[in-house]
Amino acid sequence: MGIIYEDAVLIKEGEGANEHTVITVNCPDKTGLGCDLCRIILLFGLSIVRGDVQTDGKWCYLIFWVVGKPTTKWNLLKNRLLEVCPTCTPSASGIFYFIPEFQQPRPPEIYLLKFWCSYGRKGLLHDVTVVLYELELTIKRVKVYTAPDGRVMDLFFITDTREQLQMSKRREETIKHLKVVLGDAMLSCEIELAAPEVASCLQSILPSSVSENISSLPLSGEESSRVLASDSASIVVDNTLSPSHTLVQIFCQDHKGLIYDIMRTLKDYNIQISYGRFFANAKGNCEMDLFIMQTDGKKIMDPHKQSALCSRLRMELIHPLRVDVVSRGPDTELLVVNPVELSGKGRPLVFYDITLSLKTLNLRIFSVEIGRHRIDDREWEVYRILLDEWDCLSAERSEIKECVRKKLMGWE
């Protein structure tokens, strides 16, 4: 029988407008579980305002206080959180805990959503993104082309969280929802399993100028000091307070997905959190205490490892995403870049927020390219959005950059 699976995740909704919803997770532990949970919470558009994490290396107990939305599907959120929680079964000698090698998920199948529109109106791409988001269809790559006659072809490479897109009913449901949004502008729409050779043909080549632009952005945190501080972030490493753990204290400006960014970094470094506590205050700052250890159960004593970890954490605190507006010949291009987890997962809702920002600015999107590229020994998700040249006359580049960045960081 084992653990009652549904009880691994409990959600208590806030009763009042100012009361936070409490998410409790009680299950076997695994390295990176906190990252996986925080990513799902971010995917559902929730903000973590407080958290408490405890584990003995075998079993963990996590509590998240989150700010919800009236439209939040709490039952669906619970199911998605349960999917990443390790399971266990009892035996006469105790409990068999999660074994990573036996529970690695298979890569999801990629489908090609292709539709033609007779014209491209402002905000159309965001409306399509909202439909896909509500249907739990994850956008992996996008290609948008505007033909000389004004018709627009959209190619979306997507995966299905529900793993039902191979069924005609699920495909018909998706096309029906898109038809409602696109209306008479939709000329045709089809969904099919993407052949590997088709997906590879659509992989864009990143110009050297774009790579240089990304590499030239300030990455921060390259100092060798054990205390890294700036106007917006402070990271302190202490090995004196605990005989078995390294304490990392963080104080920084809060932003959307902050806890996810920190957990993602620790997961990529294969570092375990034994105890952690964090909260965001009313002034927009976040404080965090993390007692961590390496997978061998030892503290992080090597100064070079400490420096590398602090450098990466600092980069994620200051620049979790990179936004710029640059020239592509005579045209204006919005460039957004974010790192990809070593597991291959990208940051949730980036394209959603980008298209919402451009819709707010009343800017038309001429073409879109989304791809993954390896730059400076890291894999990055790169969004290149070519904007309509006439619309750009009504908005300054600095205004576009600021609006998109604020939306992505949750500072609007």
Overall helicity: 25-40%
Task: State the low-pLDDT regions, or none.
Answer: 95-103, 218-230
Shape: globular
What is the beta-strand fraction?
A: 25-35%
Strand order of the largest sheet: 1-2-4-3-14-15-13-12-11
Total helix count?
A: 10
Using only C-alpha atoms, the radius of gyration works out to 22 Å
Q: Main sheet, how many strands, which sense, barrel? A: 9 strands, antiparallel
What separation lies between the terminal Cα atoms? 48 Å
**Class from secondary-structure proportions:** alpha+beta
Task: Say what oligomer this is.
Answer: single chain
Q: Mean pLDDT, rounded to whole units?
A: 86
Series of H and E elements: EEHEEHEEEHEEHEHHEEEHEEHEEHEEH
Summarize the structure.
The chain is of the alpha+beta class and about 400 residues long. It is about 30% helix and about 35% strand. The protein starts with 8 loop residues before the first strand and ends with a helix.
Question: Describe it for me?
Answer:
- The chain is α+β, with helices and mostly antiparallel strands.
- The protein is globular, with a radius of gyration of 22 Å.
- 33% of the residues are buried.
- The protein contains ten helices and 19 strands.
